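Quick start: what a row looks like.
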Amino acid sequence: MVKHIRTLWRGDKGRLPTQLELPPLTADGIGFPFAVSEGRHELCLCNQTHLLLWRKIHQKAEFLGAFQPEAAVKAQFWGVASDSEGWVVVYQEAEKLWVALLDARLRWRDRIPLRGYLKDYNLAPPLRVASHRDRVYLADTQSLVIVDRKGHTDAVRSCPYGYALQGDTLLCPTERGEVPALSATLVGTLSEGADLVWTVEEPVSQPNQPYLRTQILITKNREVTNRLWLNGVSGILQPLRSASQVEWMVVGQQKRVYVLGWVYAGIRRSVWLWSIDL
């Protein structure tokens, strides 16, 4: 059941700092990761070469603009998370991965090089990033790397079905029997961790523009309690009912999820950002 859907932002496709770059998301997972700070009512999105920042997202979102921290002129942003002081951003410079700690207005607090080279981590963008206590969690579609705030690797784990943090507990299913569907990916928890939130993608074949349809599954004690199609003919997000794609999803508090969607037709006003109250 959906209580409320709010449109937070509509944007354009393109290669300007304030746009989302072409080409659109493909089935290999290339997308535009973002993070939400519900306490500050802000949202920060990675547009590969810039960070885009909004505030007042629970009202009518106010776009503050596109930023690139001065010391990361040639950075490619891989993922972002929020923490109590601002943002934790993972980016690539040359053959190195870095973790940048930024304040709420994207000014430097610290910059931490991950030990070793990019090839040592076997990661590919985009990354689902989380920050908890003195650890930073970085995951792509196959692997989860946990590093400390000094850049040392704490653990590397297989992560074929996503992960979530439940307080101090890391949830990282690795067996087929632990997931509700073959292609399910764990993206977060609701209700203080009692309910798990998964996404499932299904290819849709149509003559001119095949695309992926995304469904949210909510489980409790391994039982599916809710199913919601986001895009496609039966999707709850009206602008995404034609050929479209869900770029990224973040699970917030108070049974709220945030969704970035992309409509294939058109260039202007064809990227959407929503909040959905469940």
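That is the whole record. Residues 44 and 53 are 5 Å apart (CA to CA). Residues 25-29 have pLDDT under 50 and may be disordered.
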